[in-house]
Amino acid sequence: MKAGLDAPICLTWELTYACNLQCVHCLSSSGQRDPRELSTAEAMAVLDELKALQVFYINIGGGEPMVRRDFFDIVEYSVGNGIGVKFSTNGAFIDAEKARRLAAMDYLDIQLSIDGADAATNDAVRGEGSFATATRAMDNLAEAGFGPFKISVVATRQNVPQLDQFKALADRYGAQLRLTRLRPSGRAVDTWDQLHPTQAQQREIYHWLLAHGENVLTGDSFFHLNALGDEALPGLNLCGAGRVVCLIDPIGDVYACPFVIHDEFLAGNVRDPGGFSKVWKQSDLFRSLREPQSAGACASCGAFDACQGGCMAAKFFTGLPLDGPDPE
């Protein structure tokens, strides 16, 4: 996988930057819609490309993707063409009627975001009333008979003590907990020092995931913590940027990593001649990322094979060299 694949395993697609919330750690600084965002027809054309490339699922986010009036058109077109959809939402638009519509769809996975196991902790990050909104959406999905949805949590200094409570909440709904890492991008650049877990909490996360990781999703969030012990954490234990993952933003720009929306990691645009396929297969940036990478300052570290130097986004936005160690 380090050399790259013919198509991404996981393609993240931010449908819009419009959002009803203003989360203080939002990696895309969402809030306002970009008037240049892809039209419905352009979105359908991208999905046609992804089908031809045999992409088997996409991860839709935002912003709040359900803000788009064509949200259901796009999702139904995707799953109708054999491309599964996982979408992230704050739950504000999942009323009882929409929950039933979502429950009737195949190849659909829903991820509800909260960042505290109680209203006080969550709302301090996501805004007043957002915890009640999210749990109401969970109730609506459960009552509609939607199969196990996911509850997604960004680990912060304030909520690491609540890991067991998050797991209990997920179990109560028959949901699956997804724990992800805070990256210092978007608005989190300004809140990083206040929110990112302490070194002691990093160890707490590592040991908690060793105990619960088989039942908790992490993706590629915590592979940098493998250096803390002899046992590797479950999940994708390498940086997949430009090799197996990438991001399409609302205006069609394609980035190597969902967490590094910056010109240095911009590979092209789906509106360019050749579309997404040409960007994925031929962009100079992606080709360079698929070349063997130097271990740099980590070359002498015995844990390099396990942690691979950590997260590119975390290093880039904290001003560290990309071939150096992870800031956490």
Question: Gist?
Answer:
The chain is an alpha/beta fold and 328 residues long. It has helices at residues 40-52, 71-80, 96-103, 119-126, 130-144, 163-173, 188-195, 199-212, 275-282, 284-289, 304-307, 312-317, and strands at residues 10-14, 57-61, 84-89, 108-113, 150-155, 176-181, 216-217, 245-248, 253-255, 266-269.
Explained architecture:
- Helices cover 34% and strands 14% of the residues.
- α3 links the parallel β3 (84-89) and β4 (108-113).
- The longest helix has 15 residues, at 130-144.
- The protein is globular and about 55 Å long.
- The chain contains twelve helices and ten strands.
- The two termini are 25 Å apart.
- It has one domain (10-293): Aldolase class I (TIM Barrel).
- With 328 residues, it is of the alpha/beta class.
- The model has no long low-confidence stretch (mean pLDDT 90).
- It has a ten-stranded mixed beta sheet with strand order 7-6-5-4-3-2-1-8-9-10.
- The chain has helices at residues 40-52, 71-80, 96-103, 119-126, 130-144, 163-173, 188-195, 199-212, 275-282, 284-289, 304-307, 312-317; strands spanning 10-14, 57-61, 84-89, 108-113, 150-155, 176-181, 216-217, 245-248, 253-255, 266-269.
- α1 runs parallel beside α2.
Question: Which secondary structure elements does this structure contain, and how are they paired or packed?
Answer:
Blueprint: E1 10-14, H1 40-52, E2 57-61, H2 71-80, E3 84-89, H3 96-103, E4 108-113, H4 119-126, H5 130-144, E5 150-155, H6 163-173, E6 176-181, H7 188-195, H8 199-212, E7 216-217, E8 245-248, E9 253-255, E10 266-269, H9 275-282, H10 284-289, H11 304-307, H12 312-317
Parallel strand pairs: 1-2, 1-8, 2-3, 3-4, 4-5, 5-6, 6-7
Antiparallel strand pairs: 8-9, 9-10
